[in-house]
Every structure is written in C-alpha cells, then in structure tokens.
Amino acid sequence: MPATQPRTLFDKIWEAHVVETLPDGTALLYIDRHLVHEVTSPQAFEGLRTAGRRVHRLDGTFAVTDHNVPTDSTRFTGIQEPESALQVATLEKNVAEFGVTYIPLNSKRQGIVHIIGPELGLSLPGMTIVCGDSHTSTHGAMGALAFGIGTSEVEHVLATQTLLQKPAKNMRVTVNGTLGFGCTAKDIVLAIIGKIGTAGGTGHVIEFAGEAIRALDMAGRMTVCNMSIEAGARAGMIAPDETTFAYVRERPMAPKGEALERAIAWWSTLPSDEGAVFDREVVLDAAEIAPMVSWGTSPEDVLPITGTVPDPDSAADEARRAQLRRMVDYMGLTPGQRLADLKVDAVFVGSCTNGRIEDIRAAAEVVRGRRVADGVRAMVVPGSGLVKEQAENEGLDIILKEAGFEWREAGCSMCLGMNPDKLSPGQRCASTSNRNFEGRQGKGGRTHLLSPAMAAAAAVTGRLADVRELMPRGTAMGDAA
Ligand SMILES: CC(C)[C@H](C(=O)O)[C@@H](O)C(=O)O
Ligand code: SF4
C-alpha cells in the first residue's frame, strides 16, 4: 500500500515490521518482543535443542512462570502438585541452558506475563509482541501489535525472531461519550462482546477508539484489549497518546532520555490517519453501558446487573434454545431469576484482565469499612509482585484482609484451574477474570465475569449485587469512574 494512502494503526505497525511478503500476502514479520511462560514453551525449547539451534535474540526474549505457581508460601518452599512443579522446573532449566532472561518466582517483578510486560516497560508502543498465550492482546493497549501464538510458532520466534503471518482485516470499535457512575473498562469490554459476540472480531485486529476509550487509564485500556480475544479478534489495540507516554516514562526497563524522546516522536505518528478505512466498524454509546455480569458459559452471554436470567424457550432457533438450556442448567439458574439475587460462594479479584493496582484500589474502595459476607471465600491475587508491593504501600491489603479477604502472591491463580486455587463443583464465583466456560475455574465451577468493583460488591453482600446501590454517587470505583 503506498504510504500516501491513509493507514490504520495496525497497518503502520505491520508495515514497519514486514521482512518479506510472499505472493499469497503472507508476511514474514519481525518480532520485537517475545514473552515466554511455562505452559507453552517446553516443546519449543525441546525443538531448538533437537535442531541444535540457539535463541536468536536474547535481548528480545523474556520468561516468567505464572499459570502453575501456587499463590501461597508453597511457591517458595516447594510446589506440591507434581505437574506444576515439573512445568516450572522445566522452564527454569530451559532459560538457564539457553541464556534467556528469566524473572524468578522469588523476584518482586514476577507476575502474570501480561501484567509484567507493560509494567516493566518490556511492551512498548509500535512494537510487535508475541507470547504463547491468547491474552497477549493485552499489550495492544500500549499501541502495539500484540497477539498470541502456538507452541510451534514459539519455537520459530525463538529461533529466528520472526513469524509468518497472514494479514488481518481492520476493525474499529468506537465507544463514544462518558461512562456512567459505577461503570469501568470491564463493563465496556463485556458490553462490546455482548453486542458483537465471541466471533464478532474473527479475522480482524480491533482498534478501540472514541472518547470513552481515550478517557481510560492504561490499566483500563489493558482490560479492554485483554478481552478482545474473547470477541474472536486476532488482536486488540489502542492508539498511543499522552496517557501512554506518561505511563512509559515510569517503567523501569523502558528507554530513557534522548532515546525515549526519539521513540515518542515515532510513536506519535502511529495513530490511524484521518480517513483510514476499516473493514468493519461498530459504535457504542458509553452512557448506555451499565455494570455488566456474565450469566452463561460464554463471555457473550452478559447482561446488565439489573437483568434477569433469559428464558431458553424465547430463543429464535432450536440450536440456540438447546445451548441456552445447557447454560442455564450448568450455571444452576432459573429463567426469569434476577441476577442480583444470585448468591455467590467465592469471589476472585485478579488475573491479567483485572489484577493491576487500579483494580485492587477499586475493589478496596467498595470493601472499606465492610465485611465479606458469611460463607463467602474471597481472594485478591495481585497480578505481579510490584502490584502487591504497591497495594501494601497504600494499605489496601489491610483493608481487604480486615474485611476477610485472602491476600495472595502473584499469579494466574483462580483464573484457570492450573494451580491449587480452584472452585469446587457447583460453587458460584464472582470473578474479574476473562473466561467463563464450563470448568474454567475448576471442575463444575460456575463463573460470573464482572469488574473489580462489582466483585467487591458481591463479596460484601454475598450475592451478585449492583455496586451503584452500595456506594455514594461520585465515588471512584475503577479506572474510568
Ligand atoms: C495456558 C495458556 C495457553 C492459556 C491461553 O492461551 O490463554 C491461558 O493463559 C488461558 O487464559 O486460558
Ligand atoms: S491470568 Fe488467566 S487469562 Fe491471563 S494468562 Fe493467566 S490464565 Fe490466561
């Protein structure tokens, strides 16, 4: 495409990284950052070993363990679960053998890979960023092209620092206006997925734009981009602006001084040009978004907290009726039941969607001076050791612990059942994570996705509750509130 035509943010980053384009349009892309975790890397390192190859760019490759790590002290004294212990030990052996920079489990900088990338300044605007993990889309909030790859691609990137990619289509989701009281970035993205569905972004890279997106802080932008994968998109991204640059200035491993100013000059050219054409456009009005909660077993099955459980019989076709019946049954619901009447057994605040300091502040704000309801197990799991430290410096851990929350070490935790933090069969959980399919948080577990403020409201009331009824108007309860 000639440079004179208006281009999108995605087009610009893509074109800046093409090493070669094949006749069918597939491109060999240069990859700036490769983040590695323990789940999807073992066979990739094994492949390198077998082929006698080395890691091509040690300065572009960073590894951390997050999925399998216990969030209590056993992570330091010896991981009990044999499979988890093996995965962590395998990554540690591989990074030592190949000389890859590793953030060890006892480091304050350890955490969920998608939290620590931006936090440390490893993920920067204009970059191509990959990781063997679907939620790599999170890093797109920096104004980067960031996407998940499979294990064989992890091996390819380790060996060559490049990746073969088919071009994606451009999609823009514009959120106009201002969010209402008690609504946050999580509500925006749940509302978007509710509107376009889990296949709404298929084949596209979504650029999130509009006044409500621009008003989000970096944490909120990461929440939105994180879940673009739940809308089926290849990646999600937000144009870099002053909010982005201010964030980057404070990152320990980001460029500094003259190098940073030069970078900012380039990053400032990245936003989509006026008149750039998107293959698909979706527009939402932020003022119409309410605090959202998922009721079913797919992130598209969301409703405002004021809603009621849908009646499967009211669906248009038999396939959907059967699907809804299964969801209602698995989730232990009755059609017509008010969502705000659903009692919860567990509350989880954490994950790469909502495990940042802003999320913990939002939860603590609601919890302050209240107690976790009887019979509810509530936990807060910071997304990284640095988030944990910051929260402790602000005294948020005290507020949460005094209310009856568990205060944990950083990791993926109850977002998925790969470590000891799991739901028991039939348990209902208000969760700030991003996936709610059957068994996601433990076999038979029932997940309701919502924002940190809404999760906190569930913890103190013992049910899915409308946070707006608990808080005085004007209280800050999230990144965008
Ligand atoms: C384990 C990993 C490959 C997986 C992913 O790719 O997303 C996990 O992070 C998840 O959230 O389900
Ligand atoms: S926190 Fe959850 S979604 Fe994020 S990387 Fe870990 S398991 Fe995947």
TrEMBL record:
<comment type="pathway">
    <text>Amino-acid biosynthesis; L-leucine biosynthesis; L-leucine from 3-methyl-2-oxobutanoate: step 2/4.</text>
</comment>
<feature type="domain" description="Aconitase/3-isopropylmalate dehydratase large subunit alpha/beta/alpha">
    <location>
        <begin position="11"/>
        <end position="462"/>
    </location>
</feature>
<dbReference type="InterPro" id="IPR033941">
    <property type="entry name" value="IPMI_cat"/>
</dbReference>
<dbReference type="InterPro" id="IPR015931">
    <property type="entry name" value="Acnase/IPM_dHydase_lsu_aba_1/3"/>
</dbReference>
<keyword id="KW-0028">Amino-acid biosynthesis</keyword>
<dbReference type="GO" id="GO:0009098">
    <property type="term" value="P:L-leucine biosynthetic process"/>
</dbReference>
<feature type="binding site">
    <location>
        <position position="412"/>
    </location>
    <ligand>
        <name>[4Fe-4S] cluster</name>
    </ligand>
</feature>
<comment type="similarity">
    <text>Belongs to the aconitase/IPM isomerase family. LeuC type 1 subfamily.</text>
</comment>
<keyword id="KW-0408">Iron</keyword>
<dbReference type="Pfam" id="PF00330">
    <property type="entry name" value="Aconitase"/>
</dbReference>
<dbReference type="InterPro" id="IPR036008">
    <property type="entry name" value="Aconitase_4Fe-4S_dom"/>
</dbReference>
<comment type="function">
    <text>Catalyzes the isomerization between 2-isopropylmalate and 3-isopropylmalate, via the formation of 2-isopropylmaleate.</text>
</comment>
<keyword id="KW-0004">4Fe-4S</keyword>
<dbReference type="GO" id="GO:0003861">
    <property type="term" value="F:3-isopropylmalate dehydratase activity"/>
</dbReference>
<dbReference type="InterPro" id="IPR004430">
    <property type="entry name" value="3-IsopropMal_deHydase_lsu"/>
</dbReference>
<dbReference type="GO" id="GO:0051539">
    <property type="term" value="F:4 iron, 4 sulfur cluster binding"/>
</dbReference>
<keyword id="KW-0456">Lyase</keyword>
<dbReference type="InterPro" id="IPR001030">
    <property type="entry name" value="Acoase/IPM_deHydtase_lsu_aba"/>
</dbReference>
<keyword id="KW-0432">Leucine biosynthesis</keyword>
<keyword id="KW-0479">Metal-binding</keyword>
<keyword id="KW-0100">Branched-chain amino acid biosynthesis</keyword>
<dbReference type="InterPro" id="IPR050067">
    <property type="entry name" value="IPM_dehydratase_rel_enz"/>
</dbReference>
<feature type="binding site">
    <location>
        <position position="352"/>
    </location>
    <ligand>
        <name>[4Fe-4S] cluster</name>
    </ligand>
</feature>
<feature type="region of interest" description="Disordered">
    <location>
        <begin position="424"/>
        <end position="446"/>
    </location>
</feature>
<dbReference type="InterPro" id="IPR018136">
    <property type="entry name" value="Aconitase_4Fe-4S_BS"/>
</dbReference>
<protein>
    <recommendedName>
        <fullName>3-isopropylmalate dehydratase large subunit</fullName>
        <ecNumber>4.2.1.33</ecNumber>
    </recommendedName>
</protein>
<feature type="binding site">
    <location>
        <position position="415"/>
    </location>
    <ligand>
        <name>[4Fe-4S] cluster</name>
    </ligand>
</feature>
<dbReference type="GO" id="GO:0046872">
    <property type="term" value="F:metal ion binding"/>
</dbReference>
<comment type="subunit">
    <text>Heterodimer of LeuC and LeuD.</text>
</comment>
<keyword id="KW-0411">Iron-sulfur</keyword>
